[in-house]
Amino acid sequence: MSLEWGRRFRLPIPQVSRERAAEALLVWNALIWGATFVVVRSALAGISPLYFLALRFSLATVALLVLFRGVGKSARDWKSVGAGVLIGSLLFAGYLTQTLGLRLTSAPKSAFITGLCSVLVPVLAAVAYRIRPQVAEVAGLLVATVGMALMTLNGSIGAISRGDLLTLACAFAFAAHIVTLGHYSGTVSFELLSVTQIATSAVWSWSLLWWMEKPRVQWRPSVVCAILVTGLLATALAFTIQAWAQRYTTSTRTALIYMLEPVTAWLTSYFLTGEGLSGRAAAGAGLILGGVVLVEVKPWASRPHPS
């Protein structure tokens, strides 16, 4: 967050440096989320999903309240709480529908359909806020989406099940979260957005817990470790980073960078469990990386004419 402090103290930090720093931190988020996939999958054998989410978001809320204990003291801040509640509700809706859908569809199809949120982001941004993506961003998304399909699908998508529809709702919710956060991040303090959206997700988790599942938990080391890692790193830190970073980059770029998550998940699985990657999936990972590079290189960006 050194660039934010630099802005507050009026240090001469170029806009391009803020953009690069923001996108680098979003890559870090994708690395964190991908790396925690194995940890969460192991923990869910000992704890029910919604109970896990409730504990994860609650721990993250406490950590952020301690870190940003001065946020929300002014009346102006509290007028922006509504934005955080909306963003947090979209975030929770994504996690909830993904969890419910995963029970009724295969993990590869769930991963692919969830990844479609990246394609939905520029569409929602254009419809809701009239933000047109750049040509390079659209091209990068299409290349990365093909890569996602190669990594996650072993054949045709086939018949659409109820689980697939729930997962598609998850993709819409996550896309709406990215777009809405990008819309408000430039006008609301990122500290307030971080605290409010995570606290909202925690409230939703506890509110629906007893209605949607019978909570169960076995306090294994893997469960405790997963709650700590996801609560502090993958939630409190990661979503604070996103709230800050989306001030300086577009929603479409954010969505594209987050498509690196399955690549990171595979690398983590490979080093921790020895799970290999087929040639087709390796090609998919290469296309995802290529899509990200395509946006950064900007081959269609307009160049100034020589004078």
In a nutshell, what does this entry contain?
The chain is an all-alpha fold and 307 residues long.
Tally of discrete structural domains: 1
End-to-end C-alpha gap:
40 Å
List the total number of helices: 14
Order of helices and strands: HHHHHHHHHHHHHH
Rg over CA atoms? 19 Å
Q: What share of residues are in beta strands?
A: under 5%
Query: How much helicity do the residues have?
Result: over 70%
Overall geometry: globular
Strand element count: 0
Mean pLDDT over the full residue set: 80
Low-pLDDT segments, ≥5 res: 1-13, 301-307
Q: Biggest β-sheet, characterized?
A: none
Q: Give me the secondary-structure category.
A: mainly alpha
Task: Please provide a written account of the structure.
The protein has one domain (15-135, 158-275). The chain has 307 residues and is mostly helical. The model is unreliable at 1-13 and 301-307 (pLDDT under 50). It is globular, with a radius of gyration of 19 Å. The protein has helices at residues 2-8, 15-43, 49-67, 75-78, 81-102, 107-115, 117-129, 135-152, 162-185, 190-212, 221-245, 251-258, 261-273, 279-297.
Please write out the topology.
Layout (H helix, E strand, L loop, with lengths): L1 H7 L6 H29 L5 H19 L7 H4 L2 H22 L4 H9 L1 H13 L5 H18 L9 H24 L4 H23 L8 H25 L5 H8 L2 H13 L5 H19 L10
Observed structural traits:
mainly alpha, 307 residues, disordered N terminus, single chain, 14 helices, disordered C terminus
